[in-house]
């Protein structure tokens, strides 16, 4: 468990399966059962068709670096300049995240680089969906 | 006045339980569930809704969550009667053509307290807290700027180009006694200023100031009885996209800009060639780039070269941010009022850096961080 002094996210009934999944190292997101199209962040309906059946499924945990800034004045709980990044998931949705196990520099953080899910545990309930450079599998 | 009976309620839903609780919904979820049930009763989909009004959540959150792209939003929050006021405003909006179908929502996890309160509250349960803020943003400089690296890569735009935006606007600020920053700057000055959130440096970020502004509007017929030179509103536009910049559809373009800007132009019945003066809300140096492209003044990826070529500087063919902008003039937090004030001064002919012969001015604003947009086109001539 990392030293975590930031305000941790807290699940709502609508997002509970997402945070439960991350606690076990799985990235659970939702898709429209009819079209198969994923959407994010989680909610009980697909905004493109609120009456379609939706389901949770485990995302591959593979993505690429879509964009970022390196915050030189990060909030308490972060050590030094920290990249605020957005990951493009293989499933077509994107999520804000941090890139761990990687220098927080423009040289190390190349747009479109391959990433893989590497969750960071912050408390017994919440693990954050952080990502790291793909190990080249 | 709106004509009696011209607007009607066609769908409704209420979530009330004898237990007094809905433990399965967050506050935003309650807004959404009520909305979905009302749409179902009316036989409407989110794509049929073009107006959103709510209190207890922001209309940005509600529209994003429900997948609505509105041309009319009302976040009036005046307490428990907000919804009566929303109805009144919706009548005016529908009567005047700002929207065809307005959704008004309420939702309050008043007992369960799940995700209660707006940004950045909600006790870690707001969608922003769960899906964006934990990554270590610390205010607009490290949030509003997140999409820009993608823009730079896609269009081969450089940090020097971003710096040029600030340099050109300083030329106007130098002519404005009220501007906070008046000394000329170079691209090197900008690129050597303190790093705030790579690739953004201090001089690419807006000022932090105090300030205020006010406007008074009345009918054009009454306007001629006033001592001031009227500025006629030719057209307006509005929209919202997302409460989280990291969820915007396209990191190189703002959907809210692409709705608000063209709506205002259509309403005004003008083309880009008719515009003599332009204000684009510049909280950060990338906003004029996105604004010029999303409003259609230049093609995709062409804004940086357009500015570099001198088109927006004093004497250029499209004077932009002539007060010096949020980067050099002032920025108290919600800068849109100052953009409107400069448009007004320009059409009145009394601006410190007055552009000769201004008839039509466009003031284009952003709200939140690509969350919302509003556009106003004004003229000193009544069409």
Question: What does this protein structure show overall?
Answer:
The complex is a heterodimer of chains A (137) and B (383). With 137 residues, chain A is mostly beta strands. Helix content of chain A is 6%, strand content 33%. The relative contact order of chain A is 0.22. Chain A has one helix at residues 16-23, and strands at residues 28-32, 38-39, 54-58, 62-71, 82-89, 94-97, 114-117, 120-121, 127-128, 131-133. The longest helix of chain A is centred in the N-terminal third of the chain and has 8 residues, at 16-23. Chain A is globular. Chain A has one domain. In chain A, strands 6-5-4-7-10 form a five-stranded antiparallel beta sheet, with no helix packed on it. A three-stranded antiparallel beta sheet of chain A has the order 2-1-3. In chain A, strands 8-9 form a two-stranded antiparallel ribbon. Chain B is of the alpha/beta class and 383 residues long. Chain B folds into two domains: 27-131, Peroxisomal Thiolase, Chain A, domain 1; 148-379, 3-Layer(aba) Sandwich (Peroxisomal Thiolase, Chain A, domain 1). Chain B contains 13 helices and nine strands. Chain B has helices at 27-42, 59-66, 82-96, 127-131, 148-155, 159-173, 187-192, 220-223, 255-268, 287-294, 303-308, 325-328, 336-348, and strands spanning 51-55, 72-74, 102-106, 195-198, 200-201, 232-240, 277-280, 360-367, 372-379. In chain B, the strands form three sheets. Chain B has a four-stranded mixed beta sheet with strand order 6-9-8-7. Chain B has a three-stranded parallel beta sheet with strand order 2-1-3, with helices on both faces. A two-stranded antiparallel sheet of chain B has the order 4-5. In chain B, helix 1 (27-42) packs across helix 2. The chains are: A mainly beta (137), B alpha/beta (383). Chains A and B meet through strand 4, strand 5 and strand 6 of A and helix 1, helix 4, helix 5 and strand 4 of B. Strand 4 (62-71) of chain A pairs antiparallel with strand 4 of chain B.
């Amino acid at each position: 468990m990392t030293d975590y002094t930031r305000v941790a996210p807290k699940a709502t009934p609508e997002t509970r399966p997402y945070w439960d999944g991350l606690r076990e190292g799985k990235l659970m997101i939702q898709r429209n059962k009819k079209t198969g199209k994923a959407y994010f962040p989680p909610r009980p309906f697909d905004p493109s068709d609120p009456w379609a059946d939706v389901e949770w499924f485990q995302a591959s945990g593979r993505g690429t670096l879509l964009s970022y800034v390196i915050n030189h004045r990060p909030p308490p709980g972060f050590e030094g300049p920290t990249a605020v990044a957005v990951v493009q998931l293989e499933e077509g949705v994107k999520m804000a995240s941090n890139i761990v196990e990687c220098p927080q520099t423009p040289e190390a953080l190349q747009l479109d680089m391959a990433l893989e899910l590497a969750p960071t545990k912050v408390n017994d309930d919440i693990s954050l969906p952080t990502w790291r450079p793909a190990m080249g599998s | 006045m709106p004509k009696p009976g011209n607007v009607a309620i066609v769908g409704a839903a209420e979530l009330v339980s004898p237990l007094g609780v809905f433990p399965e919904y967050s506050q935003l979820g309650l807004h959404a569930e009520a909305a979905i049930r009302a749409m179902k009763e009316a036989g409407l989909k989110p794509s049929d809704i073009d107006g959103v009004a709510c209190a207890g959540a922001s209309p940005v959150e509600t529209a994003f969550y429900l997948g609505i792209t509105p041309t009319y939003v009302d976040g009036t929050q005046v307490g428990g009667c907000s919804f009566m006021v929303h109805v009144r405003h919706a009548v005016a909006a529908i009567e005047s053509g700002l929207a065809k179908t307005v959704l008004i929502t309420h939702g309050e996890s008043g007992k369960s307290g799940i995700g209660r309160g707006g940004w950045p509250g909600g006790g870690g349960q707001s969608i922003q807290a769960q899906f964006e803020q934990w990554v270590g943003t610390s205010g607009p400089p490290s949030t509003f700027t997140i999409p820009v690296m993608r823009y730079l890569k896609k269009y081969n735009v450089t940090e020097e180009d971003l710096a040029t935006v600030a340099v050109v606007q300083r030329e106007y600020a130098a002519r404005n006694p009220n501007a906070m920053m008046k000394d000329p700057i170079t691209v090197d000055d900008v690129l050597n200023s303190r790093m705030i959130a790579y690739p953004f440096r201090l001089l690419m970020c807006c000022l932090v100031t105090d300030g205020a502004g006010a406007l008074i509007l009345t009918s054009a017929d009454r306007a001629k009885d006033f001592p001031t030179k009227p500025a006629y509103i030719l057209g307006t536009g509005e929209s919202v996209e997302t409460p989280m910049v990291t969820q915007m559809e396209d990191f190189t373009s703002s959907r809210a800009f692409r709705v608000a800007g063209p709506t205002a132009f259509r309403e005004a019945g003008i083309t880009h060639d008719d515009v003599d003066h332009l204000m684009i809300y510049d909280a950060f140096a990338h906003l004029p780039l996105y604004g010029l492209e999303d409003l259609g003044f230049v093609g995709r990826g062409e804004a940086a070269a357009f500015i570099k070529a001198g088109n927006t500087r004093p004497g250029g063919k499209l004077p932009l941010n002539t007060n010096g902008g949020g980067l050099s003039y002032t920025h108290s937090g919600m800068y849109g009022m100052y953009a409107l004030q400069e448009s007004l001064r320009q059409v009145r002919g009394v601006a410190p850096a007055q552009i000769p012969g201004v008839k039509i001015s466009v003031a284009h604003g952003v709200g939140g961080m690509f969350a919302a947009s509003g556009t106003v086109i004004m003229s000193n001539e009544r069409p």
